[in-house]
Amino acid sequence: MDKAKKKKRREILLYTLTGLFLLILCTALCAVVLIKPYEKVQTYLNIAFMDDMKYNPSGGTNGLVIKENDIKTEDISDDELTDKGEILRPSFGEQYAVLECEAISMIAPVYWGSSAELLERGACQSSASKVLGETGNVVIDAHVNTFFADLNRIQVGDEIVLYTKYGVFTYKAAELVKFKNTDKSHVLPTDTDQLTLYTCEAQVLGTSSMRIGVVCDLVSKQFYTSPTGEEAAE
Q: Are 125 and 142 within 8 A, CB to CB?
């Protein structure tokens, strides 16, 4: 009788341990599967200088109207540019620039405003920062696993060019920065012309609370003598 009881207890223990092992295994597999979407959501939620979600009831996905623009990035002659010109203010959700850094072969479309959907399409500029061509801090961010994957390769002295429908704006990397996601000192308005690029610090699992970035000084501000395309909505 004692032997039968001991055998039954062993069987119960074996079944319990097997169930526990399978539970741990399933939990680990689910965690791995969910890392990617979790990372993307957290990257958006932890943006240090993000916009509130802004919607336009006239259409678009969830009310967000996304506008793509054909922006010229090559074969631009000096005759097409001048030192003074008109700034075309973009609408929320509009691609209004193309960012290029030849030193690291990086190129990215830039959308006006920040939202999870826009961050899937390119780099985003908060509508609280200055439009290219205005005096102040132009703040642009993107996912570290997509458009700003190589941002950490930029070196001081590298040139960053932003092309728009109304002009070409050239900056030079002046300072490499690293800061916590709660630190907004690098993304606040400034009295001088500068460009601030930043993204999450890359890590294998989850998302980092640290940000890496580049603060750039303005080199030249040039406008087209005849802006290409129609003026964007206010």
A: no
Q: Which residue bears the tokens 């203010």? A: 89
CA distance 118 to 31: 26
In the block, tokens 């890590």 appear at: 203
β 137-141/194-200 pair status: parallel
Compute φ and ψ for 10, nearest 5 degrees: -65, -40
183: tokens are: 């630190």
Among candidates 24, 141, 138, which has minimal Cα distance to 90?
138
- Note if the pTM is more than 0.85: no
Residues 70-97: tens digit of each pLDDT = 999 999 999 999 999 999 999 999 999 9
DSSP string, 52-87: PP---TTSSBTTB--B------S---GGGEES----
